[in-house]
Automatic annotation (TrEMBL):
Enzyme class: transferase
Keywords: Aminotransferase, Pyridoxal phosphate, Transferase
Pfam families associated with the record: Aminotran_3
Protein name, as recorded: (S)-3-amino-2-methylpropionate transaminase
EC number, UniProt record: 2.6.1.19, 2.6.1.22
Gene3D superfamilies membership: Aspartate Aminotransferase, domain 1, Type I PLP-dependent aspartate aminotransferase-like (Major domain)
InterPro entries for this protein: Aminotrans_3, Aminotrans_3_PPA_site, Class-III_PLP-dep_AT, PyrdxlP-dep_Trfase, PyrdxlP-dep_Trfase_major, PyrdxlP-dep_Trfase_small
CDD domains in the record: OAT_like (cd00610)
Similarity annotation: Belongs to the class-III pyridoxal-phosphate-dependent aminotransferase family.
Species of provenance: Nocardia pulmonis
Biological or metabolic pathway of the protein: Amino-acid degradation; 4-aminobutanoate degradation
Keyword rRNA-binding among record annotations: no
GO terms, molecular function: (S)-3-amino-2-methylpropionate transaminase activity; 4-aminobutyrate:2-oxoglutarate transaminase activity; identical protein binding; pyridoxal phosphate binding
Cofactor(s) needed by this chain: pyridoxal 5'-phosphate
Length: 413
């Protein structure tokens, strides 16, 4: 009998019958409040009626219009529509399927456009599981161990992870920028450095927001040295942080952004956006793929953007995010060393009384929450951060429902 790979572990024991809004309904009849949103994907909720309708309508007319063979309407319409939400100046779009693919497309473009071999990534970043993306991932060795040799040309500089260092945000930022200069002096010369690749908020790495001075520092160094600034908005994009893109909190201009997850409400669709003149420097033949820009996924993405705008989901993410962060902070007991987040990305970091990462208690909290009907995930290098990523349609009452369960979990730990 065939079975799923035993390595593909699930964070919950649930088999889903169907999803509706912020809830997943299991085959055993139980209903769960889903604060995982498919790892930040189903931002419009499960099976939003307008997304379902758009996908259904598209399936009846064209499913796969292979985009290096033909063009099709949903893709052209989506590219045009993206122009209304993308940061100014990023008017050229390449579409793919997964986040990892988008990150690799950004890497290829940066290397080809600059003619430089190296990139700098930031410690704790997660950029995906394909070999190049895994090489650039430093949020845990589990993502890159055992299949070396990895890709060459990747150097790592610190991210301002203030809590881990036991410093203020200011001190951590000074350190991160100083070390970045040191990396550019000792490991990869600016003239050999194609790009800085960085998340606005470390996602898999522990839900750690960057800050304005850090990103301004990256921009300033990128400009000074002709290095491209690639912002990985795969988890932080499409309203998740309470602004349309996460970097907009920090007033920084990206040269390339990567998008996926919240873009298409669960259909596999990703992409990169860059200025036309920069995108044109990608080498002929270096962008393509069998499934990229799938017609049904593009139709779903168009409906997703409509829903985000017409239902005011970016504003809702900001407001409900404040409610969630305040609620988790107010309930933090001594098992929790830090609570942080931006918009609807909220993390509670479990630490032992001596300040060490407490993986076991975080895992126990996540399991207990699931038992009580609230789906959560863990993240961070030590998997000791419980993260909450509800759909952007979440209501004040649903946040209260989640907080009540979270209180019960903390009482029972
Ligand atoms: C910031 C970021 N980049 C890249 C990826 C990789 O995306 P995918 O799993 O679709 O390849 C993820 C996925 O979690 C992510 O959060």
């Amino acid at each position: 009998m065939t079975a799923l790979s035993p390595v593909l572990k699930q964070a919950t024991p649930i088999t889903v019958e169907y999803g509706e809004g912020c809830y997943l309904h299991a085959t055993d009849g139980r209903r769960y409040l889903d604060f995982t949103a498919g790892i930040g994907v189903t931002s419009t909720g499960h099976c939003h009626p307008r997304v379902v309708e758009a996908a259904r309508a598209q399936i009846g007319s064209l499913i796969h219009g292979q985009y290096t063979t033909v063009l099709h309407r949903p893709m052209l319409a989506l590219v045009e529509r993206l122009g209304t939400v993308l940061p100014e100046g990023l008017e050229s779009v390449f579409l793919a399927n997964s986040g990892s693919e988008a990150v690799e497309a950004a890497l290829r473009l940066a290397r080809q456009a600059t003619g430089r071999p190296n990139v700098v990534v930031f410690h704790g970043g997660f950029h995906g599981r394909t070999v190049a993306a895994a090489t650039m991932t430093t949020s845990g060795t589990r993502f890159s161990a055992g299949f070396s040799p990895l890709m060459s040309g990747v150097h790592v500089a610190p991210f301002p992870t203030a809590y881990r260092y036991g410093w203020s945000e200011e001190q951590a930022t000074d350190f991160a920028l100083r070390e970045l200069d040191y990396v550019l002096t000792t490991l990869t010369a600016p003239a050999e450095t194609a790009a800085f690749i960085v998340e606005p908020v470390l996602g898999e790495g522990g839900y750690i927001p960057g800050n304005t001075r850090f990103f301004q520092g990256l921009r300033e160094r990128a400009d000074r040295h002709g290095i491209l600034l690639v912002l990985d908005e795969i988890q932080t994009g499409f309203g998740r942080t309470g602004k349309f893109f996460g970097h907009q909190h920090f007033g920084v201009r990206p040269d390339i952004i990567t998008i996926a997850k919240g873009l298409a409400s669960g259909f596999p669709l990703s992409g990169i956006a860059a200025p036309r003149e920069l995108m044109a420097r990608a080498w002929p033949g270096s962008q393509g793929g069998t499934y990229g820009g799938n017609a049904v996924a593009c139709a779903a993405a168009l409906a997703t953007i409509d829903v985000i705008e017409s239902e005011g989901l970016v504003g809702n993410a900001a407001e409900r995010g404040r409610q969630l962060l305040a609620g988790v902070r107010a309930r933090a007991n001594k098992a929790i060393g830090d609570v942080r987040g931006l918009g609807l990305m909220v993390g509670a970091e479990f630490t032992t009384p001596t300040g060490e990462p407490d993986t076991e208690t975080a895992a126990a909290a996540q399991r207990l929450a699931v038992d009580k009907g609230l789906l959560l995930l863990t993240c961070g290098a030590h998997m000791n951060v419980v993260r909450m990523i509800p759909p952007l349609i979440v209501t004040a009452e649903q946040i209260d429902e989640a907080l009540a369960i979270w209180s019960a979990v903390l009482d029972e730990l």
